[in-house]
Description:
Blueprint: E1 5-11, E2 18-23, E3 28-33, E4 41-44, H1 49-60, E5 69-73, H2 79-87, E6 93-98, H3 101-108, E7 124-128, H4 131-136, E8 142-147, H5 167-176, E9 177-187, H6 192-200, E10 204-211, E11 219-226
Parallel strand pairs: 5-6, 5-8, 6-7, 8-9
Antiparallel strand pairs: 1-2, 2-3, 3-4, 9-11, 10-11
Bound molecules: S-adenosylmethionine.
Amino acid sequence: MRHWTLLGEAAIPGTEQSLALYRGKDDFFIKLTGKPSGGQELMNSRKHGSEDALGALPCQRLRNPDNARVLIGGLGMGFTLAAALEAVGPEAVVTVAELIPEVVEWNRGPLGECSGRPLDDPRTRIYLGDVAKLLRRSPQCFDAIALDVDNGPEGLTRNSNDWLYSYTGIAAAQKALRPGGVLAYWSAGPDRDFRDALRCCGLEVEEVMVYAHGKKGARHTLWLATG
Ligand SMILES: C[S@@+](CC[C@H](N)C(=O)[O-])C[C@H]1O[C@@H](n2cnc3c(N)ncnc32)[C@H](O)[C@@H]1O
């Protein structure tokens, strides 16, 4: 039987759902509570291969990662942020946008141990709010943008996040990139319509499948878009 302890709960703005953080025997996990997706596990600290790749791959593709400006959309358990910090240099700045203040608090507490406490890195900046808002007001600000705010284009948590995967959302993210920048998206699975939408916006798209954990089992989809 699985033993767990509830460490905290946080309402998801604009929805009737909440996030609930639990500590298991040797892991942490975040579940959705409330309608319509209540009970579904959103994240587990043992499975972060694709979250790591989302942070690392766009930064590794930059011509000059040493002083890159990077935006991560969605802190979650901090794995994408930690991987981006690992892939850039000492002069880089990595901004993480997080909608839910409690998620930031959780990462400052015991949860932060699982990703190596990336919020304590002096190169990290926190934007508390909707990453969509930050994108809209940040023309040509970032060399790499990595978005993982939901389950992918078919979101589970917040209808208003659909905008990020729409043509206007993609165009706003494109505008927020500096020349030569890389735009990356995470998704639970493939989505041909979304990949085509990226291409329709004039982006060159690489689709990468990454194991959630180790070298077998479930794989998630990343899109790396440039141009
Ligand atoms: C699946 S988790 C991200 C996981 C993360 N990649 C990691 O490495 O742990 C999604 C996160 O995005 C946040 N979020 C959801 N919508 C958002 C938005 N519009 N702007 C900023 N953060 C958002 C959620 O609160 C949650 O912390």
